[in-house]
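Intended use. Records like the one below are meant for learning the mapping from a protein sequence to its folded structure. Do not use them to infer anything beyond what is encoded.
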Amino acid sequence: MKKYFRIFEATLNDKLQYLGELLSKFFGFTLMVFIFVNLWKHIYEDPNEIINGYTFNMMLWYVLIGEAYYTVMKNRDLTRGIKEDIVFGNIAYKINKPYFYPFYCVAQYFGNIMLKVITSVFVATTLGLLLIGKLETFSLKTIPFAFIVIVFAFLINIFLRIAISVSSFYIEDPEPFLWVLDKFLLVFGTVFPIEMYSNTIQTIIKFTPIYTIVYGPTKLLVDFDFEIFKSVLVAQIIQLAVIVIICCFVYRKGEKKVNVNGG
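Structure written out for the chain above:
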């Protein structure tokens, strides 16, 4: 475990050198939030109106938190790096290192996003207070529960992305699959909460990573409900176990191909 912490620490220190570049990336996020705030102002003719269980205040904060969360969890540099390691043969050297490559990628991922998490919390909170006002349903008591769900969400997200990325052992380019994943997470869990869709679509979403990666953490921060917390957490535990097994299986099979072919 100590070696993975060192990998996390080294990655974080590297990202500290490019703090200005990181802050500049939130310009697009700020613009997106401004657009959606004005969009929902037109949809909610009355600020006190409730649409599918969401007040105007709750809906804007859901979109704001969801966008911030979506911005943080993506990490194209890491997934692209995994693909390049495999395609260009660098994986042959990393296989012999004293770490398990998927866990090495997880440590890198958390090192990469740590500053983005801190920055996004600051930017999102500032924008929310300026453009929307305080979140009327927020309670400090719910933070520990939401934190647990958020940690599981990040783990599911990164292991799912690693599983897709290591498919480079078998297919030429896994990035289209990552693109599809991002768009599903954005449309069905970030831009709109799942309550905005039909009951059939809601049922389907609850069996997908959309429910555990995006919707669950965002919903619990905006409008905490203990029943939803239990539902999301159980789904996360099951999905994480399944995705880690798939990820390790796909990687081990690919690793054997490298060893058989002599690197």
